[in-house]
Amino acid sequence: MNILYISISGNTRAFAKHLAEYAEKMHAEDPVNPEVTLKEIHENSDFTKETEPFFTFVPTYLDGGNGLDNGDTEILTETMREYLEHEDNHKLCLGVVGSGNKNFNNQYCLTAKQYAQTFGFPFLADYELRGTPSDVTRIYQILAENNK
């Protein structure tokens, strides 16, 4: 399974690495279980045309407000949006996983939900901040089921 992610504070990077470690363990137990390949997208990334299906992981950073009628504009993660737009990369995206802080109520995972709506792929799962071991297990299973 291929995962493209962007990480601003390091939370998404940490979660993605835990997910890849878990996938490696699961694959070692049973080769039917898919391994995970990670690709971090950042402002200095070379934009390329993706040729294999992938999942997108994106944290939520917005411009303030309540996430409904104001404060729903993406900031800091725009590079991922641009990468998905590049040469229609979004067409190979199997779904998006969002992260954020539940203290922000309606803004929680709003960026991932906006990506799903804009690009037409499913919002698959969410986790808070760096996630928990049970989040890793849960999200791995969701990705494995949607890795077609």
UniProtKB/TrEMBL annotation:
One protein family per Pfam: Flavodoxin_NdrI
Top-level taxon of origin: Bacteria
GO molecular function: FMN binding; oxidoreductase activity, acting on NAD(P)H
Keyword annotations of the record: Oxidoreductase
Matching PANTHER family: PROTEIN NRDI
Residues in the signal sequence: none
EC number: 1.17.4.-
Domain annotation Flavodoxin-like: ranges: 1-148
NCBIfam families the UniProt entry points to: PRK02551.1
Enzyme class: oxidoreductase
Protein name per its UniProtKB record: Ribonucleotide reductase
